[in-house]
Each structure stands twice: as structure tokens, then as C-alpha cells.
């Protein structure tokens, strides 16, 4: 009996020591940052469907818990550069010397612009098909989409989220409130005729173009009826002619004719594994035939990893 009691005491003491050791390794600056900005991150989650854990982890990592020069002097908590930016700016050394970064009047402006930055770019569109609690999917997706050049970026975000239990902020009552009453506004007959009324596709803007993100089971006919665009036009806008083209979850579909060249400061694209000319044209909202023309390529050209594809 005494041995059992002694064993239990040792387990308790080890547990307490482990907890105290972990607490000591927690960065006090991180804790203060989380306490200060968690409500702001949750507000952004309610507005833009970006996990609060991801926003907080990116803010912590990019700004050094609000202590970086960029954060202190320019309120830039997410290291966002001046692409497509007409507001205040500041020069700062990063991947290259004297690079242009966005500057804000407050941290709140930085958090809001970070959300709009992700929502407004087609390369991040597939992230918004993930569950709000899938912080790992978001972290990996941000890295794959090119948010940061650090090869360990996704792992660093995940580590911060798990070490500081930031995932708790993704499941607050206010944030997890669903539009459960929406389907009740429609009769069963209406929902049979127009099933999308219960959960319509959200329309995003990127490259100056409106687009939707394809869900599992979507077809051109269904999307056309929901969006009030004929399936033929929808296919034409997206450089498709085959009615049997298989839509995949996460695909981007533009709702108007694409551009002749990329918008903003996108000049060229370096081909990565899995890239295709069609995929690049969709990512930047460029007509496929214009993309071939810009690069003086024939339609049988297949891009290889490392190739430089001009976008304007």
C-alpha cells in the first residue's frame, strides 16, 4: 500500500514539475500578445472565416510578438509588403534590402488588412473550403501558397498554435455560431428546387475578378443556376470548352472574362511542381491564350519546374 501511495505521489510531483517546466518555457511576450490581440483575431474570424489561431500565430511569428521594428513603428504585424497597396508605406530590409512594406495607423488596421489580403487573392481561395478548426490545413496551405519563403513556416505556425493552445480561440461560442436558421426561411419545396439556398457559395474578389470556390459535387449546371450565369458562359470565362471537364473541390471559377495580364506587381511566376499553364492562368486571372502569347509558347508547351512564366 505504501509503495502504491509513493508511486502516486511521484506521478503527481512529476506532472507538476512538467507543467511548471512548460510554463517557464512559455514566452511572456507571446502570452501578453495573445491576451491583447485574441479578441481582435476572433473578430476577424467572425468577419472573414480565417481561424483566429492562424491569425494569432502569424502575428506572433511575423512581428516577434509585436516587438519587431515593423510592428512597433508601422503597426505591420504580418510582414505584408506593398503589392497592390496605395496607402502608407515604409522601407525595411527583408529577403532583399530596402523593401517596401505596408504601414498602418493602428494594429487593428493591420489585422483587417491581413484578412483582406488572404480573402482577396485567388491563391489562398482553397483555404476557405477548410473547416475553421483545421489550423494544420491552414498552416500548410499558407506555406504552399507562398505566404512565406521559410521552408519550416507551416511547422512553426503549428508549433506556436499547439504550444500556446491557440486552437481554443477557434471554437468560441460567438465564432462557432452558424447560420442554422437560414434554411428555415425557405420551404421544403423551394429547397428541393433550389438546394443552394440553404448554403450559397460565397463570392470572392481577386485580380479584380469575382470568383467562387468549387465544392464537392458541384457541376457547371448547378453553379450556373445558382449564380445566374449560363453554364456555357461559366465555362468560357474559365477557358473551358469540354462539358465533361471534372470540377474538383477547391477549384477557382471566375464569374466574368479573365484579364489579358496579371494585376498589381505580379510580373512573372516561377513554375513549381504540379503547375500547369491552365493552373497558372487561373491563379492570376489571365486568359489562357494570352498567357501562351505573353510567353511566346505553343499550346503543346508543358512548363517544367523552375521555368519563368511571364504574366504581363
Main-sheet strand order equals: 3-4-5
Briefly note the structural class of the backbone. mainly alpha
Distance between the termini: 80 Å
DSSP strand tally: 7
Rg from Cα:
23 Å
What percent of residues adopt helix (DSSP H or I)? Answer: 40-55%
The main pleated sheet reads as: 3 strands, antiparallel
Helix and strand succession?
Answer: HHHHEEHHHHHEEHHEEHHE
Percent of sequence in beta strands: 5-15%
Work out the helix count. 13
Flag low-confidence runs.
Answer: 1-24, 172-184
pLDDT averaged over residues: 81
Shape: globular
Description:
- By secondary structure, the chain is mainly α.
- The chain is built from 13 helices and seven strands.
- It has helices spanning about 1-25, 30-50, 50-65, 70-75, 105-120, 135-145, 155-165, 175, 190-195, 220-225, 230-235, 275-285, 290-295, and strands at about 90, 100, 205, 210-215, 250-255, 270, 310.
- The protein has a three-stranded antiparallel beta sheet with strand order 3-4-5, with helices on one face. A two-stranded antiparallel sheet has the order 1-2.
- Helix 2 (about 30-50) crosses helix 5 (about 105-120), helix 3 crosses helix 7 (about 155-165) and helix 6 (about 135-145) packs antiparallel against helix 7 (about 155-165).
- The protein is globular.
- Residues about 1-25 and about 170-185 have low confidence and may be disordered.
Amino acid at each position: 500500500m505504501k509503495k502504491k501511495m509513493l508511486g502516486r505521489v511521484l506521478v503527481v510531483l512529476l506532472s507538476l514539475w512538467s507543467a511548471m517546466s512548460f510554463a517557464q518555457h512559455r514566452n511572456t511576450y507571446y502570452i501578453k500578445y495573445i491576451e491583447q490581440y485574441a479578441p481582435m483575431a476572433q473578430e476577424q474570424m467572425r468577419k472573414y472565416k480565417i481561424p483566429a489561431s492562424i491569425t494569432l500565430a502569424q502575428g506572433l511569428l511575423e512581428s516577434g510578438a509585436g516587438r519587431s521594428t515593423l510592428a512597433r513603428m508601422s503597426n505591420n504585424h504580418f510582414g505584408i509588403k506593398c503589392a497592390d497597396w496605395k496607402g502608407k508605406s515604409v522601407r525595411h530590409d527583408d529577403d532583399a534590402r530596402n523593401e517596401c512594406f505596408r504601414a498602418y495607423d493602428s494594429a487593428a488596421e493591420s489585422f483587417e488588412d491581413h484578412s483582406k489580403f488572404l480573402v482577396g487573392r485567388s491563391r489562398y481561395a482553397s483555404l476557405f473550403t477548410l473547416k475553421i478548426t483545421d489550423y494544420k490545413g491552414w498552416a500548410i496551405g499558407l506555406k504552399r501558397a507562398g505566404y512565406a519563403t521559410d521552408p519550416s513556416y507551416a511547422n512553426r505556425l503549428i508549433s506556436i498554435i499547439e504550444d500556446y493552445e491557440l486552437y481554443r480561440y477557434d471554437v468560441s461560442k460567438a465564432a462557432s455560431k452558424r447560420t442554422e436558421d437560414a434554411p428555415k426561411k425557405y420551404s421544403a419545396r423551394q429547397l428541393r428546387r433550389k438546394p443552394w439556398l440553404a448554403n450559397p457559395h460565397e463570392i470572392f474578389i481577386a485580380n479584380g475578378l469575382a470568383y467562387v470556390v468549387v465544392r464537392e459535387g458541384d457541376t457547371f449546371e448547378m453553379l450556373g443556376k445558382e449564380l445566374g450565369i449560363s453554364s456555357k458562359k461559366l465555362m468560357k470565362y474559365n477557358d473551358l470548352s469540354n462539358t465533361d471537364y471534372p470540377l474538383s473541390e477547391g477549384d477557382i471559377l471566375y464569374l466574368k472574362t479573365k484579364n489579358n495580364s496579371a494585376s498589381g506587381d505580379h510580373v512573372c511566376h516561377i513554375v513549381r511542381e504540379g503547375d500547369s499553364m491552365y493552373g497558372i492562368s487561373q491563379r492570376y486571372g489571365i486568359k489562357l491564350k494570352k498567357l501562351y502569347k505573353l510567353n511566346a509558347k505553343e499550346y503543346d508547351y508543358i512548363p517544367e519546374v523552375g521555368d519563368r512564366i511571364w504574366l504581363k
